[in-house]
Specification:
Oligomer: homodimer
Number of strands of chain A: 0
Order of helices and strands of chain A: HHHHHHHHH
Structural class of chain A: mainly alpha
Radius of gyration of chain A: 19 Å
Strand content of chain A: under 5%
Helix content of chain A: 55-70%
Shape of chain A: elongated
Largest sheet of chain A: none
Chain lengths: 218, 218
Amino acid sequence: MKLRPDNTRDRLIDTAMELFHSQGYQATGVAQILKKAEVNSGSLYYFFPTKEDLLLAVLEKYKLMLHPALLEPIWSRIDDPIEKVFGLLDGYRRLLMMTECNYGCPIGNLALEIGHSHAKARQLLADNFKGWRDAVHECLNAADDRLPSDVDRAQLASFVLTVMEGAVMQARTERSLKPFDDAVTQLRDYFDRLTADGTQWGAPAASELKPRTNTDKE
Amino acid sequence: MKLRPDNTRDRLIDTAMELFHSQGYQATGVAQILKKAEVNSGSLYYFFPTKEDLLLAVLEKYKLMLHPALLEPIWSRIDDPIEKVFGLLDGYRRLLMMTECNYGCPIGNLALEIGHSHAKARQLLADNFKGWRDAVHECLNAADDRLPSDVDRAQLASFVLTVMEGAVMQARTERSLKPFDDAVTQLRDYFDRLTADGTQWGAPAASELKPRTNTDKE
DNA sequence: CATGCAGTTGATTGATCGTTCAACTAAGCA
DNA sequence: TGCTTAGTTGAACGATCAATCAACTGCATG
């Protein structure tokens, strides 16, 4: 968690990660990165031939950070595999809340901005998505007996990512947590119906669709 | 559908709309717009004081086009209100397919790129989202008797938009229709469970989760 | 002390950015 | 005919962009 690495290369990556996240890739000038990281242009280009190479390094770091920085704190706090998934969603909610709905998912932001051309960057973005989906997929596998057997786990995991990204996008645009919370409530309802179908032998019951205070303490 | 309006102002808006959609706002230079629209810089700045004002005009046009250009062709083709919603999703699928997963939802793209600052633009993006959600909301109201009474229609409509935007984002990043189709399949399953619960008196049945050939002729 | 190399410096480059403006044209009207 | 006004022209502006590079520093090796 060191805020200012003595290593120039790492400091550039960390600074770029933050600026790309808050402003986007294009909107962040190399000069701004240099100033904030307190590095001279020559040093940057010693480590990274182009600005895009710096972006690639940032995306590589996101890949490396997925498990230790994003998942592990949640995984260790929550045992139930399905609640892990919703705990993960709550993590993004916290990020939105802390930044007044300004920061979203860094991967999602860059995905729509970089999407075209930049083949290597897009591949890394896809890798990051895959890591996220795989993590959710494992949770679903761990809850195998509670889900209907005919539900494709990988497909459902992808759906969770879809909902998360779409929810963050709407929340940022509306500058409100409501679209995010609404999406999570609907996803929760869907899971309730799936698990009711998966375990029981009778009626759906649907868990009454109570709002589920996603808001406070886990 | 005139491809080259004689009106300079409209030609600028149309050209900017296309370029902003395919490349993004920041990545599109004024010079590029001028060249493609065959307009001189002075004329552009006669109609639009800044580049951002041109963006606002583009977003206004999207608002105006929502019903006549996006919804109406689908609404007139499909009667069933719930199938209208999935017809709308299929429209975006067609766009992805036609452009080899390069073009996504223009509003969603700009939402993540412009999100910060640019207060007026963000409001217009929110307006566009609202128009979309309201259209789906009306469909759900029209299918009122088939949905469980305790399901919030507005919330469900917002969820559909969430799923659409997230699905398009993933499809563009993976350069594949699969994430999109997976999301639609899951959403379809959710609707099946909702309508089963809303109309029936007994078990869920869940419609077997058959893949639903979303692919070809409606 | 000498040599070599990893890393740093920052002024400078040419391209491109969004924007300006004085001069000009064409159409409408009196 | 002369005056007005909406619209057009395109060279030019300063700022900023990503990127360059010859000169330099500090340290480890022999």
